[in-house]
């Protein structure tokens, strides 16, 4: 089996594996937490195969995913690139977004402690705090870079104008966004902005939260507490419409000698040298399947055929619940900096 290669992410010097590993599902949202030692073994296996770009967040658990990753990193820290995030938080029982400088610093210190590491390779603002000028948030992140506590700065689910304002304060190395065959809303403004500024693109949920692995059958394997059960795209009429799209994808994948999930992942990975996907999994077999997608070659004709089935608005239903979309890039403008300073 071939191991995963490396690529540059952004223009500030960060080098990561050409496919990463999203660790959220090991501890959070996708059913009960998975057995700790099994997940540590999976992470070690991934790193052994060259998947060294590991993605987590302080909200996953909350906090338990970072602790898990911290245990897995013992003895292999120098081999991996750790990306974690701040900004989503529970405060007095209320869920919201925080980006004030004091919170940024406190969150970073807490993540370093849970991960039990001296620095974070890539530190993202998980969601943009629309009550705090992005320049104020970035100013504190810049200080953390200067202190060596973080190496590179990222944003997640940020609008084009927010990205520009942030990048003017300190270079943004990567923007994380949901990009897949059925989530293409970032292509009009955000992707071009990242490319204009030389910012790397990290795609989460490239497999449509697992839908492109098994289609509607996905629902049969979900536990009652799995967050995906309430995603609009996996509900009734929407599911029926989206299953028809999955069937067409399956027909192409048969011709290409790969699985539908490998084809969906290959499509994302063919978007450019500045794109790194971070599919999540809790099983070694699925990890191997994901890695195989790197070797799936898609011609320009293949890409056109796939995109004819999956135009920008192909999927039925929203990509997330309304209360989660409230914090997406579409609602990420922040106040002018000069109003508070």
Task: Describe the overall structure.
With 341 residues, the protein is α/β, with parallel strands linked by helices. The chain has a single domain (6-339), classed as TIM Barrel, CATH 3.20.20.100. The chain has helices at 36-48, 64-72, 101-115, 134-146, 160-169, 190-197, 211-214, 236-256, 260-269, 284-292, 300-309, 322-325; strands spanning 6-9, 14-17, 21-22, 53-55, 81-86, 88-91, 94-97, 120-125, 150-156, 172-178, 200-204, 275-277. Helix 4 (134-146) packs across helix 5 and helix 5 (160-169) runs parallel beside helix 6 (190-197). The N and C termini lie far apart (56 Å).
Short description:
This protein has 341 residues and is α/β, with parallel strands linked by helices. Helices cover 37% and strands 16% of the residues.
Task: Please count the helical segments.
Answer: 12
The stretches of 5 or more residues where confidence is low (pLDDT under 50) are: none
CATH H-level superfamily title: NADP-dependent oxidoreductase domain
Decide which structural class fits the backbone. alpha/beta
What is the total tally of β strands?
A: 12
Q: Secondary-structure element order, as H and E?
A: EEEHEHEEEHEHEHEHEHHHEHHH
Portion of residues in helices? 25-40%
Question: What shape does the CA trace take?
Answer: globular
User: What's the level 1 CATH class?
Assistant: Alpha Beta
